[in-house]
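Q: Can someone sanity-check these two? First one:
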Amino acid sequence: MGASLSTRFEWSKAEQLRTSVTNQNLLHDLIRIIEQTCQTHPNESRAEFRRPLQWTTTLRPAAFTATGSGWNVVGGGGKQSKQVVTSTQTKSDGQPFFQLEHSSSTTSNPPPTPNSDTSIYTARVWSLDVLNKLLQLSDEHKPREMQEIIQANRDPINTIFGVTGEPGSALVDAFELFTNEADPRKREQYGKLYKLLLVLNSFDLQLLKSAVKETERDRSLDVHKVTEEFEMLHAFCGKDTKHALRSINWESDYIFANGYRAPPWRQVSGELGYLSVQPHDSDNLIVTATKKGYFINKGYVADENGAEHMNYEAESDVYPTLVELLKATSKHFAETVDKQEYLYQPEIPDKFVPTHEGPAGMATTHEQQHDAEESEDEGEYGDDTGTRGPKDKRNAMAKKRAKGASKQRAVEPSLKWRTLGSTLEDNPKLPNRGKKSASAGNPRSISASKEGKRGRTRHHVEQEEDSSSESGDSPEEEAQEKRQENTELPAEYYQIQKLVKYLRVGNQTATIIAICSLRDFDLMNEPNQLAIRDVGGLETLVNLLDTDDIKCKIGALKILKDISQNVQIRSAIADLDGMQPMVELLRDPDEELKCLTAETISHCAKNARNRRAVRRYGGIKKLVRLLKAKTGSKDERVAISGALALATCSKSSKNKEAIQSAGAIPLLANLLETNNEDLLIPVVGILQECASDEHYRVAIRSSGMIKFLVENLTRNNQELQTHCASAIFKCAEEDETRTLVRQYNGLPSLVNLLDNTGNKDLLTAATGAVWKCAQNLENVAAFNKLNVIKKLVGLMDNQPEDVLVNVVGALGACAQTVEGRQVLRESNGIAPMVGLLTGTNQALLVNVTTAVGACALDGDSMAVIDRLDGVRLLWSLLKSPNPQVQASAAWAISPCIEHAKDAGEMVRSFVGGLELIVSLLKSENVEVLASVCAAIANIAKDEENLAVITDHGVVPMLAKLTNTRSDKLRQHLAEAIARCCRWGNNRVAFGTAGAVAPLVKYLKSVDEEVHRATAKALHQLSMDPDNCITMHENGVVQLLLGMVGSSDPALQEAAAGTIGNIRRLALASEKASML
């Protein structure tokens, strides 16, 4: 990493790292590189450094005590230099890989710590693996810890490897050290270090490449860079003077289609947007961000009519970064900015995406999203020309409420209460209570007193590229419910509104009393819930979460927890950006407060915008931390609350990635060992939601969680059984998991769950698990012994489509065996299956056609299908617009034709049937083409049908497909060509259409089935002299000679016949030339 460290980090004159976006991103890059190296190269990461990395750390002995094994906590330190923590792992000389010492020396700028401990501790590390563990202990303080390491070790390459960090020389020096070392022990150590250097050098090259690209891009500012620096500085804001800034916000929340925040007439001047910055030691500043840099403009000025307009004229010099501008403007900012922690984490770049599993089976691969996420209703955010920020949404909400108030019912609240939401806070005579008095006058309220145009924007919610890509929306979120207009409102409605008045304008004691009084009402009653919202109580409750009074926060959360079960309340909380204060409360040491917050988030996160907000504000990591509880301990309640919130948040694909990245898999595996069903239900709920992702399935299987999922199927709790069965349903996509379910004796438990016909969710999950497990033939044999087919046949009557899809899929899997087909026929299961062919559910049609096709392999079952007119129904499905249905129907038609009595006449009886199936050869779907070719190969066995499809142009269509690279299509295409060659001049027509030469290339495939089908096709084509010449020119003889000795008789015969035809043509040609 020498070249990157020496060229990319930005240093101040005091030999300290500057506070900049570049340094922030590079620190995060280094952390990810260390984590990935330890996962992908565990042996090399344990190599012993030549000299230790040494720095002043923010870690304290208590952090090591909480982690359990792996560390020896010797003592608490003292005034004299003393070793207090060591690692259990030791070097070759018996000394520990890590030492933490309490230092008696003092420093003027000790690294900031999460607590008030001002002691100085020095850390020494001798391996990358231990360094990675230390960074994990640092948790959210990883960037600060990495910054201290870099500042204390300016040349880490020299320290770690004993070579210079100059580009191009480090590898050579390390190799010479390795080759010239005579001591075997040191040679082994240097060998590991050399391999580690090679790994780190590859990352170094990636960093340098990205640096080159950024240098090209850095010639001018763009919206992305401005936003990134804004987000970094936004994390440095706070009322306390320890923060670098009081606040920083976008001056306008409106975003144009090109991402700019400046109006179009200013964009032509290169302006990108405007920022409202409030330092601690000066007035509010309005900063203009342009492509050339940042400058302070003259702010708002009043015109002759008193209206304020922004004066865009520059009032300062242009600075390349916002940090440089603020350093020059604010003395307090310049003194404190370098002491801030990088709390904002930029997006992970593609170059650092891990490519294989990490420890404990944690799948760390992050490929492209496996399924497209559903789009949200973007009408809430803006139109085609731009998007609206949170303040606009709040104003819209207030206008909506005001508009609703103007259309009152016959019986309505008095004007005093109806206008309470606007008159109370708009009244300038009301006292402006501070935060510590549990005030609701926080700027988060949409009706708070106006701050003027300079401070009109309270908070910026970042607009991610995936803002419209959250999945898992329930129907209630996609179509917002509207409250029914009642002719009368209950008396409690007005009483609640009166209480909210005292909640908003009373003192701290009155606020607490009002909260307690609100709790006396039935808050699960919808009118009571909406009464709080209608009068503006939601804003007040959300604002109370920012107070310093813990009683107010707990009371507000208890109310929010109850009322947030209403879909309209959840949407209103999203409008108020209520997730931000809740996420902050997850860091509070009070256990009850954390539990209430997590439970409230679990309700609110049913709304897609709230789910996204939890991730944006770092809530996923905080919730995962709540899972760090030992089963049976007093912290178990906290773990239950955290699991409930994560179970709801996991409905988003982006959140699933964040949960895994936060290290949740080992914690979930640990919690599965508990007997507490209240904890097991949300834990398994998280797993079953996340199991739709392939990487999660690998991690679940490799972490040994399948055993616990199977064991919990026998518990007497249907909700837990549903989650376990659903998790197995999703995890059983891989055959390894199906085998594990059988080995852990889970098949009988799944079959027993099929008796719960009253619980549709449980039945859906159980039938789905049976379906996926039945795709293993050994499992099918076990299912047959458990009479599962009879149970499944009984479930095909009066069941929802979700259940039917799984039931028919399971029957189709069981019908792959002779015994399964026989039991299915004897159980009268074919008739209801054929009846389902008339449905419209696409997934159901795919499974039904597959099951019918499997049954058609049995002659007696085929007779039943024919009698029920099943083949005609299958043929009609070829007209479906869904390619999956088309392919599945065509695959089912092939065995039907093969095993039907008088199949030729049956096919001809379908009016337009042959023309339809030939026309499907124009499809672009490979699966459809392969299935249709297989069907045509069976249709062509009848001479009359072969003549008909020839007239419909089957030969040129088949010839056109011969250039395919799909072995599956090649096999069935070659079989179809072999069959079609038996009519008229089709052999000549195939040669003329250019089908012969591509077929020869099929013999180079590694698939034996392709070889057999191709040899048969070439044998038929070789009966035409011109085709023989084409084959010979393309080298077919050498390819076929090796196949003549094949153990497959059909391949052997076809290859020999083709060579014989070519040889006879050659002899005839030789005789003709002699004459």
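And here is the second, same format, sequence then tokens:
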Amino acid sequence: MKKFRKVLDGLTTSSPGGTIGSPSCGSAAGTPTAAPTPREIDVQETLTSDNFQLCKTVRHGFPYQPTALAFDPVQKILAIGSRSGGVRILGRPGVDCFCQHESGAAVLHLQFLINEGALVTACADDTLHLWNLRQRRPAVLHSLKFNRERITFCHLPFQSKWLYVGTERGNTHIVNIESFILSGYVIMWNKAIELSTKTHPGPVVHLSDSPKDEGKLLIGFEAGTIVQWDLRAKKADFRIYYDEAIHSVSWHHEGKQFMCSHSDGSLTLWNPRNTTKPFQVTFPHGKIQKDGRKESCKPILKVEYKTSRSSEPFIIFSGGLSYDKAGRRPALTIMHGKAITVLEMGYPIVEFMVLCETPYNNEVQEPYTVVVLLEKDLIVVDLTQSSFPVFENPYPMDIHESPVTCTAYFADCPPDIIPILYSIGAKHKKTGYSHKEWPVGGGTWTLGSHTYPEIIITGHADGSIKFWDASAFTLQMLYKLKTSKVFEKPKAGEGRSAEMVEEDPFAVQMVSWCPQSRIFCVVGISAHIILYRFSKYDANTQIVSLEVRLQCESEDVITPSENENYPCFSEQGSHSPQPHHQHPVSPGSRTPEGAKDRGPCLKVKERVVRVPPGYQSDLVIQLLWVDGEPPQQITILHDGLSLHLLVIILCMSTVDLYGATDPYQRLTRSPRRNRQSTSGSTHKHLWELTSHTCTHTQSKMPNTHTLCINSRFLKGPGRKLSLPTDLKTDLESRENSFSRSRSSSVSSIDRDTKEAITTLQFGESYGRKSDVLPTPCLWVGTSLGMVLLIPLSIPTDHEERMEEAVTVGPSGAVQMLKGSILRFAFLDCMGALIQSPYEVWRDLNAPEDPDRPRRRKLVHFSPSSSQDANGDGHLAVVCSERQAKVFLMPSQACLFVHNITESSFVLRADVVSVCNSVCLACFCANGHVMTLSLPSLRPLMDVNYLPLTDMRIARTFCFTNGGQALYLSSPTEIQRITYSQEMCDNLQEMLGELFTPIETPEAQNRGFLKGFFGGNAHAFDREELFGEAAAGKASRSLAQHIPGQGGVEGMKMAAGGAVGELARARIALDERGQRLGELEERTALMMTSAESFSKHAHEKCMKPQWMSIKNIQLPY
């Protein structure tokens, strides 16, 4: 614990210009500055660097660009590989693990070591990896890099340690899974085919051992050649040459026939004893045309041939549809007896797998589920019901149902908000799902002790908003809100929305939510704002709309007159925002000029609508077109709904903000005319959301006035600010060049004449240095690093609030930082965070209760409210793209300053609670995540975590309390991270276990006759054929063995010394004892069987020789 004591005395008044130019505010990082204050600041900081560590926690969503699929039928876990080198392993809800290959190469094949707690991955860089799944954080144990051949197919027989690897050259190699060393046994393509064959058979597309005899390996080549290779004799049993290319092969469990899928949309059935031609050829979707020819069909990419005891076999395949039917969706076909069912999918099929009851390929398979991996979805089909219903997916695979446009993260929410949202959202869930248990139920997961309510909010391009329960490292959708229901459906190619945003007129730009008051604000791309209030009851309501027309200055005026400077605020005329007491008339009834100026982008529903329980629209604000130009998009939203105020930032003339304290004091040149930037200069408007302007909501919003900016306080020469679209263009232009320096290549005049408002914060503060008590204020930050403090004059009495206007005026308080202002926060004089006051939630649609208070109740959630009331002041934390400062209010003295970065810039900054204290968390464009102590701004953590390569990360990265953060790692996935050492220590407890000890199911007793006449698969010993003693060593130049790192958990165990060794030895001893017990049981069973066979053989010898063998009762 370190105590910071700062005695500040001396100067009590200073001009803003002096504060800006003070050398103290440009001092080194974390340096206290000589600042004026008559009192002593005593803050005990408890956070140290030992409280911070950065690591990934969990990833939610659908794997982006999936490529491969695998399933362990005993452990019942599912693995999905992706093009970026990631592997997602899924089990029961809560068991969700993400692994990433360091190379980033696409995952081509996945193969579980069934019930062994291991996974083999084959990547596009021709490397095999063995992953250990017996730890909560899987790690690579071995890697094998092929140098001269490309991997095309992998096959691992059940309970075998030898992996078959097919290559692009047509060769088949064999890898020892335990040592990950290549065997000297190789099946060369030129030996597999006949010597007389003149063409190359193509890459290996299939490998499988015969269910009848494991010593027979079936090899499928792309060009249409199929070879059954005798591993013992090292020769081909048979060769099949077919005209059509082969995509997949599937065995019947008895090994007497196999099925192939081909590029012409056909399925062929072959008998291994007669391979001259297939004994059955079918075109499932190829109808016979009038001329007698078959329809041309698409290739069947994969086929599965599964048998069942109680019904006909299942033949399941993807593709094969006819080319003639244009626009038909991708489909999965299920052939069961004579019934053919076509399941159309919403996205192309990447891979599918049929889940069966047994892991043995020589037993009746009994399929019960099909897992279908699509490009953007995961579908699981129930095969046990004739209607083939799908299972309800327990994983959050639909985050990207509509593209995510914004995110918000709230930790330590009120405990009652999640059950309420879930109960309302459950009423709107889809039905028709299978009632059976989710088939992927492997792993174990328990609710950890370090959990608290967390909610993630995602906004989407279609205007929908989803609330997710993110507690305990899980993600489950609670409630979905559709903002488009507020508006009439726009007709394609018509209206203002078509001219402004054709594709997604309802897209959500930003959200603001108060969990305590349950008030929710949404900003849309069509320059609209929707205010929602929560209710547990449905209601019939008429949506209230407020249309605002913004008149801008002429861009060509360089030195305007005083009246021209303030067209929006000088008089209450046509240039000020005009509230509408009723909905505007249709555009057809106006003059062309009126329709040109007054048409909104979207049309709000005018009729009375019935709204269900949940979030119900209370007010809609729309910006109108002006002079044929669309309204500017809203870039900042901050709610002071405890004061019934809402600030919507578009832009504003600098003179309106600075007044006489403009630090530049120069005349500006007019910016270049740009149609996309509108013909006027920029403005900012403050509006109060109240029902005095809308006659429909007098009962709902009693404190109702239009907030006015008093122009008599605004004097002095003005500068024009660039439009928010200019800022957006600037952000897009630097999307792939984040290492640039902002100020080095821009002239001082250009820098001074292009400014935009970047952040806002309501709070009770001291608007002027002479203030004794705090009053409502608005803190404004600009892109040039300017901080302005605007006091708000708000009538406190209920009746006065209904009649008098809320006024604002610049106080002259101006501070300056390096770079654009990003965040404001307030601390009391003891260093505790001052939360914004909020209004206690009250259900306006609830039945009348005489005991319920009708007036709203404000809660001031601040440890220092008593201190503020006594006028002891508070601390203001300001963070910009380059710098952070702490000011003492009301003296406005700079106490501490820290230069965060010089070579990059901060993208996101938040003041968050960690370990019962507060700190400033920053995410920079160069990928660094930093934390600074408060108020001293000491660096606590600086980790080079994630280089910013996509604006999606910058748009969605957000911090929250408890040392957590998230960002959209791909268009379909949310990555959560923690920077808290305490959470990193408890991470192992909170994650799920992938591997659970399960006894391997025993193989069915095949019977003596089947084993004697049908071949004995268990007599085949691969070690004798593939081991180094028999096959020799493979060429060193063919493949390179790379030892794995073993993972973080393994290194921690190794660091534990004797304790870790004993733990590993105990685990190994338990596993060995379990295996020895199983071996002993099998040995006893074999001895009993041998004794029985010997007894019956002796009886046979004692009987007359002429007796027929069919009369002997042999054991099975």
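A (reply): Looked at the second one. The mean pLDDT is 78. The CA atoms of residues 496 and 522 lie 20 Å apart.
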